[in-house]
Amino acid sequence: MDLERAAAAVREILLAVGEDPDREGLKETPRRVARMYEELFSGLHSDPAELLGARFTETYDELVVLKDIPFNSMCEHHLMPFEGKASVAYLPAGQVVGISKLARVVDGYAHRPQVQERLTSQIADVINDTLDPKGVAVVMTATHTCMTCRGIKKAGSLMVTSAVRGRCRSDPRTRAEVMALLHD
């Protein structure tokens, strides 16, 4: 990331809104904001599929669920934060992955300018494509500050998205089981 360019852009925003970027409280703000964006958008320079490379052969053939993974992201429409929890489930087909890798995949895609719908699908797709499980389900619940503190200003509203693949989508019993586990 070009930190100097980002800092210069923040300085320009401060000038555009009528602030003095040279006053004491704002002198370091452009650099701080640039470093913040570097952190928040760190997923742009990573491939979350690589995180799923360390797999283990396992005959386990029941659902694996990791629930309530905290995440934060930035709405690509307003560059404002949204944050919430992701729950990920998959039905192994001979391979499992360390559970921390699932949380890292969530972060890898969340740390980009995003919309929640795409984020949910990206997580499901990378697990499905990389692990080749019998099924995958991802449910994400988030609060979007672009809706809670500007525009319509509906604090407390939650957006819920889901993405289901394989048997988690096609088999009604598996779908019911995974959704019950994810919403429990």
Provide keyphrases for this structure.
184 residues, alpha+beta, GTP Cyclohydrolase I, Chain A, domain 1, GTP Cyclohydrolase I, domain 2, 2 domains, five-stranded mixed beta sheet, two-stranded antiparallel sheet, 7 strands, elongated
Could you characterize what this model shows?
With 184 residues, the protein is α+β, with helices and mostly antiparallel strands. It folds into two domains: 3-40, GTP cyclohydrolase I, N-terminal domain (GTP Cyclohydrolase I, Chain A, domain 1, Orthogonal Bundle); 50-183, GTP Cyclohydrolase I, domain 2 (2-Layer Sandwich), CATH 3.30.1130.10. The protein has eight helices and seven strands. It has helices at residues 3-16, 29-40, 48-51, 99-110, 116-131, 145-148, 167-170, 172-183; strands spanning 55-57, 64-75, 81-91, 95-97, 113-114, 135-144, 159-166. The strands form two sheets. Strands 5-2-3-6-7 form a five-stranded mixed sheet, with helices on both faces. It has a two-stranded antiparallel ribbon with strand order 1-4.
Layout of secondary structure:
Layout: H1 3-16, H2 29-40, H3 48-51, E1 55-57, E2 64-75, E3 81-91, E4 95-97, H4 99-110, E5 113-114, H5 116-131, E6 135-144, H6 145-148, E7 159-166, H7 167-170, H8 172-183
Parallel strand pairs: 2-5
Antiparallel strand pairs: 1-4, 2-3, 3-6, 6-7
Helix pairs in contact: 1-2, 4-5
